[in-house]
Amino acid sequence: MRHIRALKASLLIVCLLVLLTTGCQEKDSAFNFQEDINDKDGIKIGFSMGTLQEERWQRDRDIFVARAQELGAEVIVLNAYNDNEEQIRQVGYLIEQGIDILVIIPHDAEKSTDTVHMAKKAGIKVISYDRLIRNANADLYISFDNVRVGEIMAEELTKEVPTGNYIILKGAPTDYNSTMFYEGYMNVLNDYIERGDIKVVAEIWAKDWAREEAFQCVEETLEKGIEINGIIAGNDSLAAAAIEALSEKRLAGKVAVVGHDADLSACQRVVEGTQLMTVYKPIEKIAKAAAEAAIKMAGGQELFVLDKIYDGKYEVPYLMVQPIPVTIDNMKNTIIKDSFHRMEDIYINIPEYLWPKE
Ligand code: BGC
After folding, report:
1. Which of 216, 223, 236, 334 is least surrounded, with the fewest CB atoms within 10 Å of its CB?
2. What pLDDT does residue 92 have?
3. In angstroms, what is the span from residue 329 Cα to ligand 1's centroid?
């Protein structure tokens, strides 16, 4: 009893400290995974990736694997190529291989619930990485503040284009992140729409984040003769497709487009003026934290994560990292400063005398 009271008191102190240090600002979740990881050589981690289609996922994979190996773990990585059945099969294979913990980027938020049941039945804990698995009670969710990602995008676009016609290119309907991003857009846009300042003239879900669907939507809207003033693209790949459709009508750079992920080509478009902004999600933070958490959890160590997310049925501990808006003005102090991309790559099409100075 005394033990429990002491634990509660120390938890309360942790909570108060976190509140005091964070104040009202949005901050990353407090976590200390890298400290006191028990020496646990020989842990086998299954890393099941729903896709490697977008540029970012290679970075996620590489940092995750490097950090896990540095801590003495072995990682088996499998890519399901946007196929839910395949992902379920692959998780079955990983369990057969004797993994101690499953880290999964689900292709399908709802249907991948089965993978969590399979792992739990085999006594294996599950980390839902970047994308949430719904109704499944995963042991941990590690991602960015995805509603905030959407809000940042809409805030930047409405600053530039406070009135006019918008297109919203949502991501894959099977990816719960698309829903969270959309919630963020609408948190900002609702007032503008109610006032009649902004009109959403077209809105689609892009199956499997397919660029062709984004391209087609913008092309069709233009062909109907509808004026477009702003485009919210679910990520930088969809933004690239939208800008391609605009450029066919010589409108690239004339219609404000926002995306996210800080892909290299998106950063280039931002400094070249065809994309208004992107959002930088510091992948290194979540990939390292996921590797550290996986090893701790596999070794039976407790994690204290204060944030939670409702997965439709259960409250899941949520390690949340804050996204950062990136425009031409802060490219140097964000993306370049963090070595996410190099100045010479971002500014490749711009004469050197125009590059930002020290
Ligand atoms: C991620 C984005 C990514 C998209 C397509 C989403 O779940 O949050 O960063 O661009 O999937 O893979």
Report:
1. 223
2. 98
3. 25
- Give the model confidence (pLDDT) of 108-161 as tens digits: 999 999 999 999 999 999 999 999 999 999 999 999 999 999 999 999 999 999
Task: Residue 326: name the closest of 268, 286, 283 by CA.
Answer: 268
Out of 56, 149, 324, 340, mutate this one to test ligand 1's pocket (max ligand atoms within 8 Å of CB): namely: 56
Nearest C-alpha neighbor of 136 from the set 165, 174, 164, 110: 110
Which residue intervals of the chain bear CATH 3.40.50.2300?
12-145+282-322, 146-280+325-354
Beta-carbon contacts of 94 under 8 Å, excluding residues fewer than 6 positions away, are: 46, 48, 76, 78, 102
State the fold for domain 146-280+325-354: Rossmann fold (3.40.50)
Q: What's the pLDDT at 304?
A: 87
pTM value is 0.91
- CATH number for 12-145+282-322 (one of 3.40.920.10, 3.40.50.2300, 3.40.50.300, 4.10.910.10): it is 3.40.50.2300
pLDDT per residue as tens digits for the range 286-309:
999 999 999 999 999 989 898 999
Report the atom number in ligand 1 closest to the C-alpha of 143.
Answer: 8
pLDDT digits (tens, 9 = 90+) for 20-57: 334 445 677 756 666 677 666 689 999 999 999 999 99
CA of 21 to the centre of ligand 1 (A): 31
Per-residue burial over 85-107, b = 16 or more CB atoms within 10 Å of its CB, e = otherwise: eebbebbeebbeeebbbbbbbbb
Looking at the chain, the number of H-run helices and the number of E-run strands are 11, 13
Q: 266 alpha carbon to ligand 1 midpoint, in Å?
A: 14
